[in-house]
Design goal:
This protein has eight helices and eleven strands. The protein is of the alpha+beta class and 271 residues long. A hairpin with a 3-residue loop joins strand 5 and strand 6. The relative contact order is 0.13.
Length: 271
Amino acid sequence: MFECVVNLSEGRRAEVLDEFARAAGASLADRHADSFHHRSVFTLINDRDELVRDVRALIGAAFDRLDLATHEGVHPRFGVVDVVPFVALDVAKSGDACEMRNDTAHWIADTYDVPCFYYGPVGDVTLRTLPEVRRHAFRSLDPDVGPASAHPRWGASAVGCRPILVAWNLWLENVSLEAARAIATRLRRPALRTLALPVGHFVQVSCNVVDVSAIRLSQIYDDVLAHLSGEGRIARAELVGLAPTSLLEAEDPSRLVELDLAAERTIEARA
């Protein structure tokens, strides 16, 4: 079994998100949308051939409906089909996930003339991260496949192969964006990528746990809490997509609700 977590630059129009969900077919395991980010995350899980079929249908639906030129939202993005990572749920199949990445990137470039950047293993020894793609795309980094410049309507896509990642947000109240950025910087480490973003009347510390064995969500929660001052508080935690069961098992069961974790929202429960 493989997972693909497609990040699309649309998070507001329910009827469009419904169309995308239908396009994702039998592989759809979870859908998460945020109007402030103006972004949606579709988690697809299936065997290889079925997953590739449904990922391509979802990507095609997004290209049919979306236009980067009219898009605005707080989350960084450079394409309407912004990020397409493939994950082998059996680590022994990681090479297959990278083959799926490469095939999908070539299909996007050939079918839609959209440039694609690889992340994950690139070449024999290089490991390229998604933040590196965002920083260097079209500057010091050329697309791996497709045209040399962004498509005028659809932009570009980052297509990756990676281990399981957990996306998780903390919504903060009575905290300035400047203070949230300082907290995000303090939290950042090899296992944890962070951003601070304005979301309506709140600010958000957006977290990507890239090594789920190295850090617990409760540690992140408690570290943020320790750095708040005055009337600052954590309004809520938010899991984006699915988490592996191992992440829940590492936590005190009494804290699962506080951390927005539940057994029915695990990869294993939806696979």
